[in-house]
User: Fold this.
Amino acid sequence: MRVKTWGKLVASLALATVGFQALANDPAWPNKPVKLVVPYSAGSTADMVGRILVERLGTRFKQPFVIDNRPGGGGEVGTQHVARSAPDGYTLLLTTGGPLVISPSLKKDLGYDLAKDFTPIADLAWIPVVLVSHPSFPAQTLPELIAELRKRPGHYAYASSGVGSYAHIAMEMFKQSLGVSVNHVPYRGPSQAEADLVGGQVSLMLTGISTANVFLQNNRLRAYGVSSRERSRFAPNIPTLMEQGVKELADYEVTSRTVLLAPAGTPKNIVADINAEINRALASPEFQEQLHSKNLLSHSSTQPAKVAETLLNERATWAKVIQAAGIPKE
Assistant:
């Protein structure tokens, strides 16, 4: 669901970066290895993007760029570590949006703030999610699905990879948009949730299209639509939720993005140099193909100010969804 630019939030980010604008450039950077903190385990989406990126950055800047996996707390542990790190360009954060745009509405004391503690560098890659069901679900199309949910409120259950995950909050937004009631069954990760969905223990799930494709191709799951604005190149036969004539979903857009940030106060030349190299990478067919091989999509270019605006808008959107769902802060 798109929202208009939240001027006050973007302004707060601008104020938070005044100090960084005033700092002198560091012409010697980098003169030692640069650490990319990934707040998830190896094999996660952010980790896959990072392992493609570090090779490119290391070659360009002639210093090793290394992945530092710091999983825990749904990405919050590693994110907090970077927020508290020195703003010298040697510790960066490569993460999906969850700990930046969802966690602030779920946790009372995160130990970091998106607008105050980070300087955005680039928006690297994203993956659309797809709404799927077990084949036994009594609806073949999206309109039939909606009609069935409205006819039997509270009868069906959907799976997610945990409370506060994209799969959870995005499905709550879907429910709120349509005014339907579907029970939430949280799991301790996407693989467990998907296993029970395929096994028929739960009826519905919003999940990454790369994972779902394996089950869709052998008819073990049924797809109703992808959550991106345009159809996915990985499943072009699946329509978007937005294009199917359901007025309540005309602005329903959810993607899980992977972004690169630095601690607030990082010298502006370092941010600019990394951003410029990432834009060169995004224009490279080889780099694009590396991302596509992981079922990831990327932008043609990326700018720090736009990344800031996007993240702040998403934070505001998810805050409204979480409040409307009545999910308490821990």
Remarks:
- The radius of gyration is 20 Å.
